[in-house]
Design a protein that fits this description.
Elements (H helix, E strand, L loop, with lengths): L10 H7 L5 H14 L3 H7 L5 H15 L5 H13 L4 H16 L3 H7 L5 H14 L3 H8 L4 H15 L5 H9 L15
Helix pairs in contact: 2-3, 4-5, 4-6, 8-9, 9-10, 10-11
């Protein structure tokens, strides 16, 4: 399963992907939950398939997957770590929430603007065109001449380091501020 295929993953699918329960068990319990008028999660806890704490984490992860803030693979690893006892569910919730906060605050366009490499106006134009063409923002910025391939690649690399919790957002901005603009249209960088 890729992230795009599972943008709306349901709880049962997530637990199956994590290897905690089989598809057949999910199907059976889903049918029973509907018959009893219970949420699937409550029935999973009642049937001792998952703990209440693990259920809370799984529901939070499910939401983050739907929001595009975390991958299914990373979510499955988090669930398996809780089951193995290598991390407590409460600690994982805190960690996942911190991760999601970092991801939310690290959009490529905002990162470039905060680093002074792109104006709000140039970002707005690129976002409109990117949406219309269904093209990645970085590609659109290069096609518009707002930034070079090298700068976009560096910004994407730094963004991925923030999302992997290797550096924080402030450090990312500082790293990008050190980049010297070598593009063809420096007037787009002026603050609007």
């Amino acid at each position: 399963m890729t992230e795009h295929e599972t943008a709306s993953i349901i709880l049962g699918e997530l637990l199956v992907a994590a290897g905690l329960i089989s598809c057949q068990e999910v199907d059976g319990l889903s049918t029973l939950a509907q018959f009893m008028g219970l949420p699937l999660g409550n029935l999973l806890v009642r049937e001792k398939k998952v703990s209440r704490e693990l259920l809370k984490v799984a529901i939070r992860l499910q939401t983050l997957i739907a929001d595009g803030k975390i991958s299914v693979e990373l979510s499955c690893r988090a669930i398996r770590d809780i089951v193995r006892g290598t991390v407590l569910a409460e600690q994982m919730l805190e960690s996942v929430s911190a991760y999601a906060e970092n991801v939310r605050d690290c959009r490529l366009g905002e990162l470039l603007v905060d680093a002074g490499l792109l104006s709000d106006l140039a970002l707005g134009r690129a976002l409109v065109e990117s949406t219309e063409l269904k093209a990645p923002l970085g590609q659109t910025l290069v096609q518009q001449g707002a930034l070079t391939d090298e700068i976009v690649a560096m910004a994407l690399s730094i963004q991925s380091r923030v999302r992997a919790c290797i550096i924080d957002y402030k450090a990312a901005v500082i790293q990008l501020k050190d980049v010297k603009y070598i593009g063809r249209m420096p007037h787009l960088l002026q603050a609007s």
